[in-house]
Amino acid sequence: MTERVALVTGGIGGLGTEICKHLARSGRKVVAADLGDREERLDEFRHETREFNGHVRFEALNVTDAEACQGLVRKVAAEIGPVDILVNAAGITRDVTLRKMSSDHWRDVLRVNLDGVFNICREVVDSMCDRGFGRIVNISSVNGQTGQFGQTNYSAAKAGIHGFTMALAREVARKGVTVNSVSPGYCRTAMVMSIPENVRNDIIAKIPVGRLGEPSEIARTVNFLTADDAGFITGANISVNGGYFMDF
User: Fold this and answer.
1) What is the tally of helices (H) and strands (E) in the chain?
2) DSSP run (H or E) holding 219
3) Residue 203 lies in a domain
4) What does the DSSP assignment read for 146-209?
5) What is the CATH number of the domain that holds 24?
6) Is the pTM for the entire model greater than 0.85?
7) Distance of CA 133 to the CA centre of its chain
8) How many domains does the chain have?
9) DSSP state, 245?
10) 244 in active site
């Protein structure tokens, strides 16, 4: 596996951390970009990635800030090398029914989950095309495919990622750049484990494999899509949900 530079937004979250670790094991130099105000979580992340001897580093980033995204991509290029692999895993929820949803609830989720993908992709795609290689993976959600009660904002943003992914894939396909999305189902992350146990059990009962997914199972899929020899897969959405939603 060629040593390439990977940038992972939302990189210290439950899914993001596992993605960083899998990419590092594949010989990538990994930059985890995330908000810098969670010191306790950041300490845990550094402990979890200590085995990689500096090949995983953290950089503070708010993906809703277009100028900050530009600055980080330039910093990474100057200090490590141009970004070859981009994984957009930053995301938030603000769950409430539409009748009770404020404009801020809507805007906050769309700005992070969808605008953030635009902001960072725009900063890496030209360089990828110029060099003839790039791998972009956008983390969507099963709820962008099925919808979910109380998540009109989140479901809209995650569904929007699918359209963004397919359109960008067409734009850059002949430049050696692939763009795909991964739609996780319900996984054993802090966000899912915060759901009341009775509700969580109802969700698990509807998953054909009978359990929650593990973050490592999402990370393996992302790692596969970012491989040098995965160049014939683009514009695809890979569902990793234990059979919770099946499409053809």
Assistant:
1) 10, 7
2) helix 215-225
3) yes
4) H--TT-HHHHHHHHHHHHHHHHHHHHHGGGTEEEEEEEE-SBSSHHHHTS-HHHHHHHHHTSTT
5) 3.40.50.720
6) yes
7) 19
8) 1
9) S
10) no
Q: Is residue 244 part of a domain?
A: no
Q: What is the mean predicted confidence (pLDDT) over 28-48? A: 95
Kindly report the CA angle at 89 between 196 and 192, in degrees rounded to 5? Answer: 10
What span, in angstroms and rounded, lies between the C-alpha atoms of 117 and 204?
30
Residue 72: give the domain boundaries. Answer: 5-236
The closest alpha carbon to 31, from 63, 50, 54, 59, belongs to 59
Whole-angstrom distance, CA of residue 144 vs CA of residue 159: 4
Rounded to whole angstroms, the Cα distance separating 12 from 20 reads 8
CB of 141 closer than 8 Å to CB of 157 = no
Q: What is the rounded CA–CA span in Å between residue 33 and residue 74? A: 13
Active-site hit among 45, 58, 133, 154? 154
Mean pLDDT estimate for the chain: 96
CA–CA distance, 15 with 217 (Å, rounded to integer): 9
- Do the domain assignments include residue 18? yes
pLDDT at residue 2 in the model: 65
Residue 245 lies in a domain: no
